[in-house]
Amino acid sequence: MKKLFVLIIVLLGLDFSTQAQGLDTPRDGVYDKIHTPNREPVPYAHLREADAFWAKRVWRVIDLREKINHPLYYPNKPTNGRINLIGVLLQGLEEGSLTAYGADNDEFTVPLSTEEIMKKLSKADTIRDRFDPITYEPLPDTVIVTDFDASTVTMFRVKEDWFFDRQRSVLDVRILGLCPIREDYDQEGNLRGTRADFWIYFPDARQILVKNEVFNRFNDGQRLSYDDWFFKRFFGSYVVKETNVYDRYINMYATGLDGLLESERIENDIFVFEHDLWEL
Known about the structure:
Elements (H helix, E strand, L loop, with lengths): L1 H20 L30 E12 L6 H4 L11 H11 L4 E3 L8 E2 L1 H8 L1 E5 L2 E2 L6 E2 L2 E5 L6 E13 L4 E16 L5 E6 L1 E4 H8 L16 H6 L6 E5 L13 H23 L2
């Protein structure tokens, strides 16, 4: 009887230990968030070539430093289940659900591997002309590798097509690609310009964008996904290029105030076109 009692105590102890080891981490909230992780992107309306009555290709830039775009920039590190836009894209690249394309052109013709992307994102500085302070003999060059910092991605270039669908009688827009842009500094910390690392084909990215939330300043219980944010065009941006015979960006023929006015002209021409279609 005594041995049976000891055996029962041991079994209960093992069962309790197993349950304790299998406990999940505490839930950070009052309910399980199952809606957004299981969402699917809303499919685009079918468009026939014959129904594309008019079309215009436009390139624009989303500056993440603008207040309206801060939900795409923050947090720089994963916080409370949220990650920023560049984090979502890199997560898709690491998982293999997304493919990155070379930034030399925006036609999605040169796919890049994950290793190539990480090599592009990391920064390598070479310290040359080093000498031993005692013997004054030359020392080998030193290479300092800096890991990728999400906060360095301050802009996104967007490639999109505006078109008028005469079957639905609407002026619509489809985003084709996203390109993260980083500021490039020299060893002295001086800004040398910006650098584009890769392009992401947006229709493929929708599958992962729709499963990640964007911060809502007004309601934590009703947050949109990144796909919703782009679909509803809640971002702020400015046009940097339209299709033209010279294939030039605006800054190649207009700068300063002239460049800003040219950007606004392109934006306005699209909506004036739609307005003129319905004007009596």
